[in-house]
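Limitations
The structure tokens in this dataset are predictions for the assembled complex, not deposited experimental models. Users should treat interface geometry with appropriate caution, especially where small molecules or nucleic acid strands are included. An illustrative entry is reproduced here so readers can see what is and is not provided.
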Amino acid sequence: MNDIGEFTLLLALATALYGCVAYVMSARGNRIDLYLSADKTPIIVWACVVISSICLWKAFLTDDFSLQYVWAYSNRELDTFYKISSFWGGQKGSLLFWTLLLSTYMLVVYFQNRKKNLRVVPYAMAIMLLIVVFFLFLINFSTNPFERIPLPPEDGRGLNPLLQNYWMVIHPPTLYLGYVGFTVPFAFAVAALISKDLDDGWIRMTRKWTLLSWFFLCMGNLFGASWAYVELGWGGYWAWDPVENAAFMPLLVATAYLHSVMIQEKKDMMKVWNMSLVLLTFAMTIFGTFITRSGLIQSVHTFDEATLGYYFLAFLFVIIFACAALIIARLPLLKSANELDSFLSRESSFLFNNLVLLGIAFATFWGTIFPIISEAVRGVKITVGPPFYNQVNVPIGLALLALIGIGPVIAWRRATFSNLKKNFLKPVSAGIVAAVVLFPVIPLGNRTEIYTYITFVLCVFVLTSMFTEFYKGTVSRMGLHDESAVGALATMTWRNKRRYGGYIVHMGVVLIFAGIAGSQAYGTHTEKHLQIGESFEIRGYTITYEKLIAVEATNVKTRIIAQLAVERDGKRYWTGHPEKEFYKGQNQPVSEVDVLSTWKEDLYMILADFREDESATIKVYVNPMVSWLWTGGWIIAFGSMISMWPDRLEQRRRLERVRRQEQLFPSPAQE
Amino acid sequence: MGFIHFLELILIVAILLAVGIPLFGKLKLKKLVEAVDPTSDKYKHLLVRKEETLISIKELEFDFSTDKISEPDYKVLRHRLEAEATEILERLDQLEQEHRKKLTPQ
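Predicted assembly:
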């Protein structure tokens, strides 16, 4: 099987290379024979990569330690669940997994578009195949997961215990689905530039792909935060780690793109800006991969054998220069047909939102690469930590939060001060009430607390602005169509999925802002060394160390569990079981925290240390409002689903367009 | 030759056949796309603009009904959008007529 797996990777590479060349030649030479020949390659490449992936999965499931990769990331005792996810546990497999997702996306794009705009689609397929070629080249010649060990060992080294968590099965694939997904809009954007077919057809063809990729990237970031929270055992969920930043930056740029693209659709303007944003988003995904695989930056997320940085850096430079050259060459065709009607309009608020999002992305980028630059120029490695990011990004983030509330209240095209006054009355009043009510309650002793206070006030402002939008729309619809409130709300949301789905997403973002602010400002923690029966207090909780339990969980895993009774107001409230897990062959034990999560706060417990006399060092954090973050994530997911849901009206309009076009110009249907 | 090598050979032959067959047919004479007719592109673009302008009018009405926009602004913008839509419809008609004329034998 391994031979087949390795061979199909080579076949995939050769086929992808041929497909790429044939697609370009078919478009340039206007040859249908070459197109039909190239047209088979996405399926073949996908099939080859699937076969290869099945072979690698089989090697994991059958403990085939003749493969160096399986030996390095699995062992006989590993749960089947983790054997499956070990596939992407290391660099080699994760690249193959990336290629598997990319070729699958490519296959879907192929079936969706192969008979559509034949001026653009061949180039788009060629671009996607070219990216597949890059990954397959690395897999075949630099980091082959089918590399053999001449004398296969009896057992494997095992998967890093930190990766033996259910989030390992969820977080990387979700993040990769986001990363990889942006290849589709990128490919169509470049194809539009090459083919000079620069109306907004490419945007319409990739709108859902962009939303889907944004959704996965957003969820990937949140799942990563959740994983860090429960697995890394330091009490937090985000550390501005370079690899976290690498996943955060494309999300910011993609968010900017998602907003500004609406202006292009509505007003046929900002073509260069949107083109640049979509290319920058893709470049950021490759930059993220460079960070993870370069070995230049130390992070808990980087791969052990990170040696591919220079390949990715070279690829990144090629992408940036080629795309910049293409945009410059096509500048005359990318001229805007219209201008903003007024600076007091939703379009303007979107532009500000773009600047703010890019500001955060740039600050994050700068903080991420500064250690590399510093080391290269001065030979001194400087660590850029959370204080830098918090100092720069928090004020910009607050501006973004305010814009989330301002945008929906302003009308498209033009707004007047008198109407703004009227429309802002409720949200601003709610914000003022919140400011007055919270002022005596919330401590304002330092900058973090002041920022948190402002965040809460803005959250109230934004949520009121959103609810007012739903309320006004519902009332208006009830008046016009004689519907019940629930019916009007549901129909209005369903008929305007993009608008109201977007508002729901924004509500989720507000909860995330509130959760971050609350947990950063008002968290507390303590660390105590306790004998059995001893207690201590933290924020009204009385915590008593009851006993230490040792459990032989499996042949390779021993669990040492501390039992902690939590009392509140003199009553037993909960029993916590933080633990340390010892894995055979691993020097460092892994902490498994225990968390009692409520909407108000999380009680987060860590067994930091224990001794032979059964005394233990217990660390307890009280993190307020962390659950708001995860709730915000689910609301974002719900809103995204509504936005992405296929729109029958839109489909009907598209079909009508195609029908009219075909009636007059009976060539192949053009989207 | 082992079974694996045989399988590999089969795979290569299958792929070569799949991508090779279209190259040896009579398709060489056919074009992938017809020469780009600038009118067709313009027409397509106008259809999209027409649709977007009509959506903008609907949204404007909605914004007005929810009191997001003042009456004078609503009237100005509605007038502008209607003028835009009319212009687009006229240009579409014009393109259709010109194209039909072109197709009609002299």
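Some entries come with short summary sentences. For this one: DSSP finds 21 helices and ten strands in chain A.
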